[in-house]
Amino acid sequence: MTYKTDEIWEDKWVNTTCGVCYCGCGAKVRVVNGVPVKIEGIKETTMGGTNAGLCGKGVAGLMYYHDPNRIKKPMLRTNPEKGIGVDPKWKEIEWEEAYEIITTKMKKIMEDDPNKILFTNQTMRASDGPHNHPYFYAQAFGVKNNGNFIIGGGSLHCGNACHMLGGLIHGAWSIAPDWRYTKYVLKWGSSKGTGSGHSAMTNARLRADAVRRGIKEIVFDPMGNFAGGKATEWLAILPGTDTAVGLAIANYIVNMRGEMDELYLKAKTNFVYLIKEDGTYIRHEKSNKPLVYDTKAGEIKEYDDQSAAWEDLALDGEYEYNGEKVRPCFVPFKEHLKQFTIEWASEISTVPAAKILEVAKGWVDNAQIGSTITIEGKTFPYRPVSSVTFRGSQGHTNGIHQVAAIDLMAQLVGAEDVPGGTLGWPAIRRAYPGGNYEQTCKVGTDGVIVPSVFYSHDPWPVHAPSYPATNMGCVDVWTHCTLSHIPYVEEVDYIHDKLGMKAKPEMIFGISANFIISNSDWDTAVKNFKDCFVVQNDLWINETDQAIGDLILPDVSYLEKDCWSSEIDAFFFSGSPSYEDWYVHLQKPVAKPIGESRFFMDVYLEVAHRVGVLDKFNAKLNDYYRIEDPELQIKPGEKLTWKEIGERVLRWVYGPDKEKIEEQGYATWHKSIEDVYWRWEIDSRCPVYMEYLIHDRRNMEKIFEETGFDYKKLEMDMDQYTPLPSWFWPESHKDLDDEYDLLAFSYRDILHTNNTTFQNPYVDEVSQMCPYTFTITLNTTMAKERGFKDGDIICIENKYGVKEKGIVKTMEAQSPKVIGIAGQGGLWADGRPIAKGKGANFCKLLPAKLKYFDPVAGNMETAVAVKIYKVN
Ligand SMILES: Nc1nc2c(c(=O)[nH]1)N[C@H]1C(S)=C(S)[C@@H](COP(=O)(O)OP(=O)(O)OC[C@H]3O[C@@H](n4cnc5c(=O)[nH]c(N)nc54)[C@H](O)[C@@H]3O)O[C@H]1N2
Ligand SMILES: Nc1nc2c(c(=O)[nH]1)N[C@H]1C(S)=C(S)[C@@H](COP(=O)(O)OP(=O)(O)OC[C@H]3O[C@@H](n4cnc5c(=O)[nH]c(N)nc54)[C@H](O)[C@@H]3O)O[C@H]1N2
Ligand code: SF4
Ligand SMILES: [Mo]
């Protein structure tokens, strides 16, 4: 559209936060006459790419505002029948009626048991929205929070194992290489710095500088795509077999090369803790603290006894305590590693043995054990090697061992949260100068770091398994799940029945996730959730809404949202992991809400008010921000809008600079170097030997025996509850045979954010030019041998007869034993016509049985054994 100059009454740029994915890059929007017309990055911020670089999706975000398919009023289902392919017969209703329906239902359920309400949340609203608030919200209703959450594939595909160990090792949500100082990076199923993952553009900028500096980056991935294609070296690996390679590298370091950072192992890990024959710690009779052996004094002492110097603690030997034989847990650990030879790992993973050896050598050579670096006058141990992972490798039934093995090599050389090594997202955020809100790590039981923010989870120690289960996710029993897998599994009724879960879910309420299609087998998801009254806040009618939604409330998009609360969560989720200043962006409305859309946080507040739990929610907010000033605290009986609450919180957090920060749209202050490289600043220990799992196993097996829950029949592998990172075949591999002889897997398309951007016309146009977004990739040679060529339409079928069709695209850089399906295509919602009918859907092929989920962390098997054949 062109304007005559005299018709322009407004032409301005507004600083805000990009909301197209959870990375929360600083963004500015040009607004002409109230209409957003262009999006760019903000040059000075550390939240974003080089020279104000946003990614392609970010600049295309404009279409969130301009999409005519957005819902504009609450939509009520009038057809009581539910399911895929059923017309919901939507009827537009007024907000007042919508609130009446919601609160009447909720009040009735609450009289009985609030745990009958499930809450949804969405990973993508994490940094442009109040990530943690939905959890407090649920708590205000009296719900055991992480047991009653469903958020699409979020966490089950992408985080459970990583967040669990990220929390316990780094006090953080996620990990990244220290791009600034590293020399040697190993990536295991993660595109950090090349397109996806946390802080995507920030990492891309930091990585680009590192590449210019000449780092070596080795990517283990079934496909040489975004990460592999840009790496120094791409090594094809079969999905779910990273553990084997990781353990072989650990064995090389410990038993072949014998070069370790011994001081680190003695000072910063639990390897020195003495264990009994059964593998559990011996503990001090009074303090209950684990014990260590001081070689200099020849005495057994509490692990934190200041009279024992770190270097004198024993990593080997055998001792006696109260007549019992005890030894440092490093002794069996070292012995255990011996079985994992490089040849063995090569056979399992298909990575050539010579390559594994080369990487293992490169790792130790580059680790520079014993070296130090002085930055700004402060000296730190220098370990310029990083080993990182995220969704790719952890999304398997052996997920917890995958992540533990990938972490182990860094532990052995002391490369954790020191310059050059693997960093957690800054675990520590100091208060803004003159402001008040601060998050730091504390040291808890057994010397383990207690993460400041650990999702909805108990931080540490995690509660002991107990029954009866009180929530749909049964997190009473499966205690390590960031989010629970149980709501999705086929055997859910049996599990609830046996474990005594009485609160059969009756209602689902929250921010839209596409949980019917973005996790696993669609039919099981429909079966498990369709009897609930489903209320989602959404921009469109998505697949889940269409299949089982009852009432869909129109949300504002990030362009119309006044979301001050993007500020707090930004630090642990999407800030820069590196040593560079804090930039924390607010999300400011650049346009008026479309139709009658309302920000979901205000809807939350209204519903809480009407149901009578608003005071409880407000109290949680006071608590979360630790607001001490009585003037700023939300008081009982006060009913504020989200913006009004923001006025108080921002004053608390930024003090006198609040107005200035609101005006410029972001706050910036110095991040101190000790808060980035905190490992030697805080006296804590990594629980590398996962002793707690022994106790969990005992407790769980006792529960299973008492309740008659037949976990063996459900093929839940309790052997994974072992303190030693070990090899377990992923369930997908066990399904391989002569007929189902390929492993299908999925990867993020750099052009897309999950399934949301399939509805973005700009992104769609680019996708049509991309040979991969809407296709299924096969290795070129393999395709030729099997008679497939580009453009062929094939059917992919799993062992349970579930099928998906797609178009073949061959590529050299892919393992010949796998097939790759990009992102989350194969969508069909009528409410998203741009997305409809493009690409193939991978998730429906993932079986939703308990055995396909990691028995410890609950993440799911995201590879599946399939056969493929041509169709017309
Ligand atoms: N095949 C395959 N499946 C995957 C993955 C994969 O790589 N491949 N990845 C997995 C991972 S890691 C994740 S986190 C999940 C994500 O899966 P989902 O959470 O289901 O996907 P999203 O696209 O993030 O968002 C879900 C829905 O939110 C709605 N939405 C979008 N923007 C807004 C908004 O501003 N406000 C509101 N109220 N609603 C909005 C849209 O209707 C969208 O359908 O998928 C998992 N599933
Ligand atoms: N562009 C973009 N960025 C995003 C998102 C998005 O949708 N688009 N989503 C956000 C979300 S919700 C998440 S969870 C993160 C995820 O970010 P990442 O963790 O980077 O996730 P993916 O790109 O799905 O997977 C990474 C790589 O793992 C490979 N892979 C699959 N299985 C295995 C395996 O078993 N072992 C190994 N070694 N590799 C494997 C895939 O081929 C892929 O290249 O990204 C976030 N950022
Ligand atoms: S990485 Fe995410 S937050 Fe940053 S510009 Fe791209 S879509 Fe926006
Ligand atoms: Mo995710």
TrEMBL record:
It is an enzyme of class 1 (oxidoreductase). It comes from Desulfotignum phosphitoxidans DSM 13687. Its EC number is 1.17.5.1. One of its GO terms (molecular function) is 4 iron, 4 sulfur cluster binding. It comes from the Bacteria. Gene3D superfamilies: 2.40.40.20, 3.40.50.740, ADC-like domains, Dimethylsulfoxide Reductase, domain 2. Keywords: 4Fe-4S, Iron, Iron-sulfur, Metal-binding, Molybdenum, Oxidoreductase, Signal. SUPFAM superfamilies: ADC-like, Formate dehydrogenase/DMSO reductase, domains 1-3. Residues 11-69 form the 4Fe-4S Mo/W bis-MGD-type domain. InterPro entries: Asp_de-COase-like_dom_sf, Mopterin_OxRdtase, Mopterin_OxRdtase_4Fe-4S_dom, Prok_Mopterin_Oxidored. Transmembrane segments: none annotated. This is Phenylacetyl-CoA:acceptor oxidoreductase PadB subunit.
